[in-house]
Fold:
Amino acid sequence: MSDALYRQLVEAIPADLDYDYLLTGGSRAAVVCGNYVGTGLLGSGEGRPAQGTEPEPAGSLRDLARLALSWNLREAGIGMAALCAYWNNPERHDGLRRGLASQVEPGDSFLALRPEFAGRKVGVIGHFPILAERVAPYCELSVFERQPQAGDYPDSAAEFLLPQMDVVFITGATFPNKTLPRLLELCPRAMTILVGASVPLSPLLFDHGVTALSGLILPRTTEQEWARVISQGCRHALSRAGRKVMLRGDALA
Structure:
């Protein structure tokens, strides 16, 4: 297991591309670059010290995105926001520009894929609030969660049980905490979907065993409006600010 996945996402960003501004508030970071915005989940707790000083309000997008490699989870969340600012932009992304991503309603990634997981073994990394209604009645569901709720497995159980799954949904929160590469190793034969506001819609991820990406396209508005959105820190505010799409690897073939 290596950090190659992260480095590929970062190095694809042009060296001369600058971001316009960075905002942090609540549990989220937002990076504005051109006409679109990327968001990342800021880690909580003390953890490792920051690699350096606080990022500049504006500057090199690639340099900011390199923070995704940091073991300081706040820095890593800022880096993921920078990656999304680049990859979740229809002006730069051929698959999005050609309309190959299907639009889904907030929370409906699971509904859209129900025909493909119905009656099968489904693993979900992260306890999404809609699982009981939209997933559990239609499959054999196993939920893996760092802070387990009733019926969940602890996330450590993924090492033993994930290889048995036919379909696996993985929260975008696994990007900044660096668990994603190992999770993908554990389910090489499964249909694997990355889900969340901080998922980069990059076709490079299809080379690492990902089947589909479900994320957000967030258009630029005013700095004041984005400060308000991230201060709320909830997925509903983000969903209202943009549109949720799903991009499948087979659509780009």
